[in-house]
């Protein structure tokens, strides 16, 4: 059995679920099932992108998080891993956190993963505001996910745009065709962007919310107004805001701010996207928006808030997209692993792997044995080095063998994953297979081996 055989993709779709939430230094709620859409049960989501702001960043908490995983990453991994989602990468800048998950079988085709951070708080010295991003090639198409926390307060709309431009200018990726954020085929921009509703009085805003007349508020939304005048926003798209403003609530309630400050409700929490456009010959700048878009199409399926979560003064916002690759292309894993359907004894614990001609191997590569439902690439049960002897250079296939100490103590469903040291990612996986080599089997085999040795001595 082998995973990820070579195949042609004529119209390949990736379903991406993006979440943004200013968590207001709160600890995670007990259940985030509905936020992740796991209660729907369609099972079609390929990637989860989770952008958080104001994750607890007190000094003692950050020291703990440096040694262990922060609570928010942990709860997301715990909830998603049973459904086959693996943490691809994460990036944290003080309170701004970005998590990227994907179904395990997509891992070999998520390549060139890089992350960046840009601080804009206190003139660039403090990371309470700014942007964190993760970029990668997804089945040959470059995508960048950018999570931002921009300056607060009604009067700082211009500063928000300046900080966004600064983030775009400063974030540069190395060794890739797409060096800047906007150079990618698709960009998803989300976060607590902090744009407010201009001009309208509090009672007008609340009346529009109470009567579901959100269109009255759209016209005065600072981000919507900026789209007509700010060049940096050219090409960015957003679905209609058909949900109530997500800020600011009394914590623990669905009641807008009743404190002395009485902040006006606003859609501070947003999710936008942008396709890299190629201008047709002779087209002006405006014509570039409707030009060819490198073979990718983005469809938004929903855009909503989640009123049931009350641990923060913000409500989380989510959106589900389908990214459709329209070009025909060939995708071959860099490493193909062949393994039997079952391991019934220690003698069965072997695998064959084949390397693609363009794969750059390292002597530090390894193959991990992962229990189905593993959280990230370090969450292995055991591993063996994918050693390369001098005599191996001309061989097409290479074999690895697991010793009994590298095998799990119980039976279950497992996969093998080939980890590339040069690429810092898993570049080949198998389909799930069964390991039925229990600890008692290993002990029995050791006893049998010992008796055979005694018999030989006699």
UniProtKB/TrEMBL annotation:
<keyword id="KW-0378">Hydrolase</keyword>
<keyword id="KW-0729">SH3-binding</keyword>
<dbReference type="GO" id="GO:0001726">
    <property type="term" value="C:ruffle"/>
</dbReference>
<dbReference type="Pfam" id="PF22669">
    <property type="entry name" value="Exo_endo_phos2"/>
</dbReference>
<dbReference type="GO" id="GO:0005886">
    <property type="term" value="C:plasma membrane"/>
</dbReference>
<keyword id="KW-0597">Phosphoprotein</keyword>
<dbReference type="GO" id="GO:0005737">
    <property type="term" value="C:cytoplasm"/>
</dbReference>
<dbReference type="GO" id="GO:0034485">
    <property type="term" value="F:phosphatidylinositol-3,4,5-trisphosphate 5-phosphatase activity"/>
</dbReference>
<dbReference type="GO" id="GO:0004445">
    <property type="term" value="F:inositol-polyphosphate 5-phosphatase activity"/>
</dbReference>
<dbReference type="InterPro" id="IPR046985">
    <property type="entry name" value="IP5"/>
</dbReference>
<dbReference type="InterPro" id="IPR041611">
    <property type="entry name" value="SKICH"/>
</dbReference>
<keyword id="KW-0488">Methylation</keyword>
<dbReference type="GO" id="GO:0017124">
    <property type="term" value="F:SH3 domain binding"/>
</dbReference>
<protein>
    <recommendedName>
        <fullName>Phosphatidylinositol 4,5-bisphosphate 5-phosphatase A</fullName>
        <ecNumber>3.1.3.36</ecNumber>
        <ecNumber>3.1.3.56</ecNumber>
    </recommendedName>
</protein>
<dbReference type="InterPro" id="IPR000300">
    <property type="entry name" value="IPPc"/>
</dbReference>
<keyword id="KW-0677">Repeat</keyword>
<dbReference type="GO" id="GO:0046856">
    <property type="term" value="P:phosphatidylinositol dephosphorylation"/>
</dbReference>
<keyword id="KW-0963">Cytoplasm</keyword>
<feature type="domain" description="Inositol polyphosphate-related phosphatase">
    <location>
        <begin position="12"/>
        <end position="331"/>
    </location>
</feature>
<comment type="function">
    <text>Inositol 5-phosphatase, which converts inositol 1,4,5-trisphosphate to inositol 1,4-bisphosphate. Also converts phosphatidylinositol 4,5-bisphosphate to phosphatidylinositol 4-phosphate and inositol 1,3,4,5-tetrakisphosphate to inositol 1,3,4-trisphosphate in vitro. May be involved in modulation of the function of inositol and phosphatidylinositol polyphosphate-binding proteins that are present at membranes ruffles.</text>
</comment>
<dbReference type="InterPro" id="IPR036691">
    <property type="entry name" value="Endo/exonu/phosph_ase_sf"/>
</dbReference>
<dbReference type="Pfam" id="PF17751">
    <property type="entry name" value="SKICH"/>
</dbReference>
<comment type="similarity">
    <text>Belongs to the inositol 1,4,5-trisphosphate 5-phosphatase type II family.</text>
</comment>
<dbReference type="GO" id="GO:0004439">
    <property type="term" value="F:phosphatidylinositol-4,5-bisphosphate 5-phosphatase activity"/>
</dbReference>
């Amino acid at each position: 059995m082998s995973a990820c055989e070579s195949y042609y993709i004529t119209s390949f779709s990736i379903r991406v679920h993006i979440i943004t939430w200013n968590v207001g230094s709160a600890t995670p709620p007990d259940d985030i099932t509905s936020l992740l859409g796991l209660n729907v049960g369609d099972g079609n989501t390929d990637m989860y992108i989770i952008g958080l702001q104001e994750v607890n960043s007190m000094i003692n908490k950050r020291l703990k998080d440096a040694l262990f995983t922060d609570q928010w990453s942990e709860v997301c991994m715990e909830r998603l891993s049973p459904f086959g989602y693996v943490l691809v990468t994460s990036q944290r800048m003080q309170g701004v956190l970005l998590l990227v998950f994907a179904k395990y079988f997509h891992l070999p085709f998520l390549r060139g993963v890089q992350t960046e951070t840009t601080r804009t708080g206190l003139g660039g010295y403090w990371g309470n505001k700014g942007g964190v991003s993760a970029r990668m090639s997804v089945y040959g198409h470059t995508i960048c996910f950018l999570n931002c926390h921009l300056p607060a307060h009604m009067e700082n709309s211009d500063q928000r745009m300046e900080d966004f431009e600064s983030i775009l200018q400063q974030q540069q990726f190395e060794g890739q065709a797409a060096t800047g954020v906007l150079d990618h085929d698709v960009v998803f921009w989300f976060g607590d962007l902090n744009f407010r509703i201009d001009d309208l009085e509090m009672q007008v805003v609340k009346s529009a919310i109470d009567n579901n007349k959100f269109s009255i508020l759209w016209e005065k939304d600072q981000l919507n107004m900026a789209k007509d005048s700010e060049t940096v926003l050219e090409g960015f798209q957003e679905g209609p805001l058909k949900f109530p403003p997500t800020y600011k609530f009394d914590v623990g309630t669905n009641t807008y701010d009743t404190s002395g400050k009485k902040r006006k409700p606003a859609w501070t929490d947003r999710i936008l996207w942008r396709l890299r456009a190629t201008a047709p010959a002779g087209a002006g700048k405006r014509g570039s928006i409707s030009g060819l878009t490198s073979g990718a199409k983005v469809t938004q399926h929903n855009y909503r808030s989640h009123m049931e979560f009350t641990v923060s003064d913000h409500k989380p916002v989510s959106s589900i997209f389908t990214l459709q690759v329209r070009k025909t292309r060939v995708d071959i894993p860099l490493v193909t692993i062949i393994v039997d359907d079952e391991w019934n004894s220690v003698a069965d614990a072997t695998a064959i792997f084949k390397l693609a001609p363009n794969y750059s191997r390292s002597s530090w590569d390894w193959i991990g044995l992962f229990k189905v439902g593993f959280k990230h690439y370090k969450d292995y049960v055991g591993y063996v080095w994918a050693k390369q002897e001098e005599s191996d250079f001309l061989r097409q296939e290479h074999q690895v063998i697991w010793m009994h100490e590298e095998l799990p103590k119980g039976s279950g469903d497992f996969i093998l994953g080939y980890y590339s040291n040069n690429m810092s990612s898993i570049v080949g996986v198998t389909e799930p297979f069964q390991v039925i080599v229990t600890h008692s089997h290993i002990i029995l085999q050791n006893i049998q081996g010992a008796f055979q040795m005694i018999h030989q001595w006699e």
